[in-house]
Amino acid sequence: MRFEIGRVEERLIRSVESNGAAHLTLIDPDSQKPSQAGIMAEAAAEGGTDGIMVGGSVGATGSLLQETVKAIKERTDLPVILFPSSVAGLCDNADAVFFMSLLNSRSTSYIIENQAMGAPIVMRYGIEPIPMAYIIVEPGGTVGWVGDARLIPRRKPEVAAAYALAGKFMGMRLVYLEAGSGADSPIDARMISMVKSALRGGLLVVGGGIRTGSAAAEVVKAGADVVVTGTAVERSADVTSFVREVAGAIKWKTASGVSWAITEKKKA
Ligand code: 1GP
């Protein structure tokens, strides 16, 4: 029997195949009211984002989570993907969940226990689980602390590549390289390209500290397939313009023509 890829994952793969890269907007339910999250998501959709991730390290649970997802879905047709920090980050009105294992955690809780408690809930809710290896790199931010991660040193790209490959061999189709929300700078190009060439296939998601179109382009040029921005969207006075800048910098087909990031990515 073949393993079936769900609709949201398929859509993400198609975006990457047709545009060279995709952009996801991360919304933390703990940072604003649900109604404001809905407005932000609508503005991000207008700017060309490919999906909305909903989650956060602290407080992104219960009715606040549910109401945030509801408000987003009322205002956009984009897929809403949960990005849970524990079993408490699940709700039944999202489309999918990044079903992640924090591979470099010291705590079995973040590697498998929350996942075991969460799996029957995901099944009952009928949301699409998207298997993902989650790897946290220095500085790691709040998620690094909460997830008790043994942070991958920035200068050890080969360690990140080893974890990513282990994730692939365990059947995870996506790998997320995370610098931590609000990181001073994105993950270095050298680490991204080493991970990408170790993986040869699968989607490489990169996030943490990406605040401009040119930073996003560097990340894609190095080999990222999906770029995540959270803090910069939250702080932006004009979410549509910001997302348009990032999407325009990373996608193959943009109003301004062919993005150099994708041209470079294809050469790599
Ligand atoms: C955090 O990678 C994401 O999980 C996004 O990070 O908030 O720095 O964009 P930023």
Series of secondary-structure elements, N-terminal to C-terminal: HEHEHEEHEHHEHEHEHHH
Number of domains: 1
In whole angstroms, the N-to-C terminal distance is 35 Å
* Strand composition percent: 15-25%
Q: What's the architecture, going by CATH?
A: Alpha-Beta Barrel
- The third-level CATH topology is TIM Barrel
Q: For this structure, what is the CATH class? A: Alpha Beta
Which structural class matches the secondary elements? Answer: alpha/beta
Low-pLDDT segments:
none
Radius of gyration: 17 Å
Shape: globular
Explained architecture:
There is one protein chain. With 268 residues, the chain is of the alpha/beta class. The protein has helices spanning 7-19, 34-47, 62-75, 108-125, 141-146, 157-169, 189-199, 213-222, 231-235, 239-250, 260-267; strands at residues 22-27, 51-54, 80-82, 96-102, 128-136, 174-178, 203-207, 226-229. Helix content is 46%, strand content 16%. Helix 2 packs parallel to helix 3 (62-75) and helix 7 packs parallel to helix 8. Residues 26, 143, 178, 181-183, 207-210, 228-232 line the site of SN-glycerol-1-phosphate.
